Amino acid sequence: MRDPQTASARTDEPMPVMLWRARPDLSCDYLSPKWLEFTGYTEAQALGDGWSRGMHPEDLARWLDTCLRAFDAREPFEIEYRLRRRDGEYRWMLDCAQPRFSADGLFQGFVGACIDIHERKRAEQETARALERERRLRLAQERILSGLLDLSHPLLDGVRVLIVDPDPAERETMSRMLAVAGAHTRAAANADEALRAVGAFHPDVLLSEVGARSGEGYGLIRSVRALPAERGGGLRAAALTVPAQAAEGLRAVAAGYDAQLAKPVEPVALLATVARLAQPAV
């Protein structure tokens, strides 16, 4: 980093960062051309205490507290705050500062550099908002699910559900949801495993992915419907489809499924569909 004292002798020379220098009393005695260009202030307007007019009012007290502590301790500091650009927009800055000392060790103030981090800060804030929305949605689904279970408690007590999906994570997620409601589950990765489970597990409800990957779900339901009733031919079944393939729902019902659920499956939709399918046919 260049010495601002040297740079001040050539204020018309462009600087790569916005530099500033302050005396021990916090008054500013140097601002680089880049700082002046960014804010639109003249030296006469900004030097001394004038530079602070460009800081966002909500950040000024925090900045001042940080500076006073650092000046008293003669220690480096970093702080993020909003600085008004010449067009009136406030931009987030990262201000990094170091104490200055004379050759005989006398404290002379601080020198610092401001870096525009507005885009990074905005991305962080958007991510935080998205995470907060997700948290609130998850809490809302949990409250709905809890209420549903309280009304029924357990809603699916003793119901046997066979889950067919090539994705282990999807199988595990649905198994956990159903277990909370009292269901017993068995998982299969493909149609062959599923047909064996139909004979051994005797499920009340079949949940099977269709179409999105291998299309095995259609062959599976045809095989199930070909079985005698006492061996599972009348098994109630729901097809698991992806939102991008809306037509799969109609195709699945035409192939022999009784219902359709879009993935990723929402807890309430899953439990409501399984509960409906588990009811004796009338």
Characteristics:
282 residues, alpha/beta, Beta-Lactamase, 5-stranded parallel sheet, 10 helices, 23% strand, rod-shaped, disordered N terminus
Structure description:
The protein has 282 residues and is of the alpha/beta class. It has three domains: 4-116, Beta-Lactamase; 126-153; 154-278, Response regulator (Rossmann fold, 3-Layer(aba) Sandwich), CATH 3.40.50.2300. It is built from ten helices and ten strands. Strand 8 (205-209), helix 8 and strand 9 (236-241) form a beta-alpha-beta unit. The radius of gyration is 33 Å and the shape is rod-shaped. The protein starts with a helix and ends with a helix.
Helices and strands in order, then pairings?
Elements: H1 4-7, E1 18-22, E2 28-31, H2 33-39, H3 43-46, H4 57-73, E3 77-84, E4 90-101, E5 107-116, H5 118-152, E6 160-164, H6 168-180, E7 184-188, H7 191-201, E8 205-209, H8 216-225, E9 236-241, H9 247-255, E10 259-262, H10 267-278
Parallel strand pairs: 6-7, 6-8, 8-9, 9-10
Antiparallel strand pairs: 1-2, 1-5, 3-4, 4-5
- Uncertain regions: pLDDT < 50 for 5+ in a row? 1-15
Shape: rod-shaped
CATH architecture type of the largest domain: 3-Layer(aba) Sandwich
How many DSSP-defined strands? 10
End-to-end span in angstroms?
83 Å
Query: Measured on Cα atoms, how large is the radius of gyration?
Result: 33 Å
Walk across the major sheet and give the strand order.
2-1-5-4-3
Compose a concise summary of this entry:
With 282 residues, the protein is of the alpha/beta class. The chain has helices spanning 4-7, 33-39, 43-46, 57-73, 118-152, 168-180, 191-201, 216-225, 247-255, 267-278; strands spanning 18-22, 28-31, 77-84, 90-101, 107-116, 160-164, 184-188, 205-209, 236-241, 259-262.
